[in-house]
Amino acid sequence: SGGGKHTVIQWFRKRMIRIFVPYAICYFILQGIKGILYGSFDFWSELYLFSTLDYWLHHRGYWFIALIIPLYFLAPLINSTLNRCQNRIGGGSLIILGLLILTSIYIDPVANSFNEFLYNAQSAFKRATNFILGMMIAPYCKARLSIKPLKTCLIFISLFSFQVFLREYYGIYIFCNWCLIPILLIFFCRILSICNRDTKAWAFITWMGAASLESYITNGSTQGIVRYIASCFPESNIFYGHYVEYALVIVLGLSSAYIFH
């Protein structure tokens, strides 16, 4: 997204600004509220958590931020590999399958060991499939080219079936449940494609796609802020069932994404 011709360094700098500006603001607002409510704020500990090192070493913190940074480093290589494939969708699906197999290898997460780092890396990178999926279809979207929905669905159905086969016959579990989401999205987009695009609903969906990065980044901190605020009213029924919390997270998350985008 963003358009224009940029070098890899310019592209990466732009992405880091999009990540760290909203992340830093929301994160330190959250920690400020925590400090006010509980009277504790250790700057160096919070800076360590903010750096995402605590996720890679001890599985604590925001996995999305920890993952998106190395993925952006790998993005030029992934894109170059996809460009060399005669069938971009098929080639990308093979990359995803290989990634899922690697992240399915069992590693015992012994505390304070290299195994724990590998386990945390597996936990993060098994979620990188959606990132690769986005890179697979991005050129088609930019060029306004259609993707054959049936063929694409068959690819993800095959991946999901492969997971079921390994789990049932060999006891190996790989994280392929996400494959059901693209199938639903493909049919959803197919329905949208026959709808009138000159509507507010279409404009909102388009904006949601453009601001999805900011929405992901701010979501974790926004959720924490709402929960800290809710903890100030332990006897109030307004937060019963967490429905008000969910609504506030959605509203504040979309609002912050709108501001930062």
Assign a percent range to the helix content: over 70%
Tell me the structural class: mainly alpha
If helices are DSSP runs of H or I spanning 4 or more residues, what is the number of helices? 12
Largest sheet: none
Distance between the termini: 12 Å
What order do the SSEs take from the amino end to the carboxyl end, as H and E? Answer: HHHHHHHHHHHH
Number of strands: 0
Strand content: under 5%
- The whole-number mean of residue pLDDT values reads 75
- Gross morphology is globular
In the predicted model, the low-confidence regions spanning at least 5 consecutive residues are: none
CA-based gyration radius: 21 Å
Describe the structure.
The structure is a single chain. The protein is mainly alpha-helical and 261 residues long. The protein has helices at residues 8-38, 43-50, 53-58, 63-83, 88-104, 114-125, 129-142, 149-170, 180-193, 200-210, 212-230, 243-260. It is globular. The N and C termini lie close together (12 Å).
Summarize the structure.
Helix content is 74%, strand content 0%. The chain has 261 residues and is an all-alpha fold.
What descriptive keywords fit this protein?
mainly alpha; 261 residues; globular; 0% strand; 12 helices; single chain
